[in-house]
Specification:
- There is one protein chain.
- The chain has 17 helices and ten strands.
- The chain is an alpha/beta fold.
- The protein folds into two domains: 66 residues; 261 residues, CofD-like domains (Rossmann fold), CATH 3.40.50.10680.
- Strands 3-2-1-7-8-9-10 form a seven-stranded parallel β-sheet, with helices on both faces. Strands 5-4-6 form a three-stranded antiparallel β-sheet.
Length: 421
């Protein structure tokens, strides 16, 4: 029955189907005349005319369909198809983190591959996410939402809608539409992971977003002065440096999607993002850290450019790496990307007023730990200091390419050695 709907009035298909059939008939007649050697010239002309009619009709049929499916992007069809096919062949990249840092990285990665899995922390307990988490007993949706929007291939208006925050006083004040949407989708589907997948379809994201765990977890920080703080939003309010970080409850397991993505990854990226409140909540999940350690893929830590007040005060890049491995395992990393360029003095002064300062690279000490260090100017040109997403993504793709080349060389040597014996 569905086939006959193509012939309904107003579909703008029938005329081109009939023209295509007529062209096929002309081609057939032309072939007959050519083969029988009665009128070869007439036969060739009929074949040429028929083929032209078939080509025109097929083009018109495609145009009619595309005009309906992509009314505003018809002229971009070739670019869309090329981009989709190119990105489908890209490397499998897992990006681990949370907050705005991970979203910035995803903006660049999605231009190189659509095989991205963002593994996102669910320890947030502040703002709109914290209120929804407390009121509805759900994982916080805020960092998930940021990653969905970062990977979105939908129209800009849809992304703006998901990021819209209610400012008016009342019950919705401070809430983000995207957070409320994910909550509503959870109520409809009855499952948080399914709610994320359905939201991903609406935003047409390149890749997928998965929570690192589905357990209701909280961060607990032990500070050097003996203070103990619980809750991601409370940790940075204590001036004393953090000595140790824990997840509560301990023993929370990672999601199957997160573990599977890590096991099959061509590259795993940790950061950029808040060291204690965006990155470590993921690495404190034991089976996730174990999967990371066992992965043969390059494991790349993108170090922050600036320190964070009351969280990473006076820490250099070497200290950042030490904190990561001390809370997990030494082999969760293989590469470290650090900023080594200059930052305008007027911009640094603004950050100094907020007690944030550049993170010194200390590359030699990191290499002494056995890690490969890539130093580069990573800052985007703006008043806000943040990573240049395209540049960082290109460095990651270069590491993936070098790793693949080294693996192929090793396999060829092994094959040649086996053959010689």
């Amino acid at each position: 029955m569905g086939l006959f709907k193509w012939l309904y009035p107003g579909m703008r298909i029938k005329r081109w189907v009939l023209l295509c059939c007529f062209g096929i008939i002309l081609c057939s007649m032309g072939f007959v005349l050519t083969i029988t050697a009665v009128q070869k010239t007439s036969g060739s002309l009929l074949v040429l005319l028929g083929a032209s009619l078939v080509a025109i009709s097929i083009r018109k049929i495609i145009k009619s369909v595309v005009t309906v499916l992509l009314p505003e992007r018809e002229g971009e069809l070739v670019n869309i198809m090329y981009q989709k096919r190119y990105l489908e062949r890209g490397p499998r990249v897992v990006a681990i983190g949370g907050g705005s840092g991970l979203a910035v990285l995803l903006h660049g990665l999605k231009e190189h591959t659509s095989n991205i899995t963002a593994v996102v922390t669910v320890a947030d307990d502040g703002g709109s996410s914290g209120r929804l988490r407390s009121q509805f007993n759900i994982p916080p949706p805020g960092d998930i939402r940021n990653c969905l929007v970062a990977l979105a291939d939908a129209e800009p208006m849809m992304s703006d809608l998901f990021q819209f925050r209610f400012q008016e006083s009342g019950e919705f004040e401070g809430h983000n539409f995207g957070n409320l949407f994910i909550l509503a989708m959870l109520k409809v589907t009855g499952d948080f992971e399914k709610a994320i997948k359905e939201s991903s379809k609406i935003l047409a994201i390149r890749g997928r977003v998965v929570p690192s765990t589905l357990k209701r977890v909280s961060l607990v920080a032990h500070h050097k002065d003996g203070t103990v703080t619980e809750g991601e939003s409370s940790i940075s309010k204590v001036a004393s440096p953090i000595e140790r970080l824990y997840l509560k409850p301990q023993g929370s397991g990672a999601t199957e999607d997160a573990l599977s993505a890590i096991q099959n990854a061509d590259a795993i990226v940790i950061g950029p993002g808040s060291l204690y409140t965006s990155l470590l909540p993921n690495l404190l999940i034991e089976d996730l850290a174990g999967a990371l350690a066992e992965s043969p893929a390059p494991k790349i830590y993108v170090c922050n450019v600036m320190t964070q007040p009351h969280e990473t005060d006076r820490l250099n890049a070497f200290d950042h790496v030490n904190v990561l491995v001390e809370h997990s395992r030494p082999d969760v990393l293989s590469h470290v990307i650090v900023h080594s360029g200059q930052i305008p003095q007027n911009t640094l002064k603004k950050y100094a007023n907020e007690e944030a300062f550049p993170v010194a690279s200390d590359a030699a000490k990191i290499r002494g730990l056995g890690y490969t260090v890539i130093e580069s100017n990573l800052v985007a040109s703006s008043d806000m200091i943040r990573h240049n997403s395209p540049k960082v993504s290109k460095l990651i793709m270069d590491i993936v390419a070098d790793s693949k080349k080294a693996r192929l060389t090793k396999e060829r040597r092994s094959a040649a050695y086996a053959k010689s014996r």
